[in-house]
Amino acid sequence: MIDFQKEGHIAIFTINRPEKKNALNVHCMKLLTEALINFRDDDELWVGIITGKGDVFSAGMDIDDFLPMIRNTPHKKWIRPTAIMRGMELFKPIIAACNGLTYGGGFEIALACDIIVASSNAIFALPEVRVGICPGGGGTVRLPRMIPYKWAAQILFTGKPITAEEAYRIGLINKIVPPDKLMDEAKKMAHEICEASPIAVRCAKELMIRGMGMSFEEALRMEDDIQTYILNTEDCKEGFQAFFEKRRPRWKGK
Fold first, then answer.
1. pLDDT tens, 92-106?
2. What are the residue numbers of the active site?
């Protein structure tokens, strides 16, 4: 079950299978994918927050349900629901609010988000190697791009968990807060992002993501092209006008 709520310009996705430690089965992944597409296509939603019900973010994929599906679709990979972990172009910012256990596919969902806020009791792990497989939801790709290689190697090769404090020290997460303050902090950060132009924020995210796969000079050219586009938007005109008039801008997302 995925709970999908809208609070103004903020979308909140809650993984709701507490009886299974919020492990994601195929149905849940389909629901999450659909909810994220809804978020992507709704012009009134600017920032997303993904969290888990109760005191667990997610124990990962429900292997009793997910592994048979993967084994049975070797030549139909496109039918596998992967949400933001693979294949979905989503340039709206997403915050992962990690409350407690954040393992396997749950950790990979958090890695696919742009910002991670964690409760002080959060623990992170990619334990797949300990059961004879390797991460398949982007963990081997994203982790070494986010933290030093040797830390990524330790996490991936041992499958052992790290604490929120260790994750913060190596630059994996943005902030640690008490468990009862987690959603307050995630929403505060989301509201801070909403103070900026939604078009400018989406362009900044797109430049970051696409630029990582380009040469330095190619990325600079793309940045210049997108900056030229932004200068002709209504939001850009409103932003400058509000600056000169010393007032808050009224963003339209156009």
1. 999 999 999 999 999
2. 108, 128
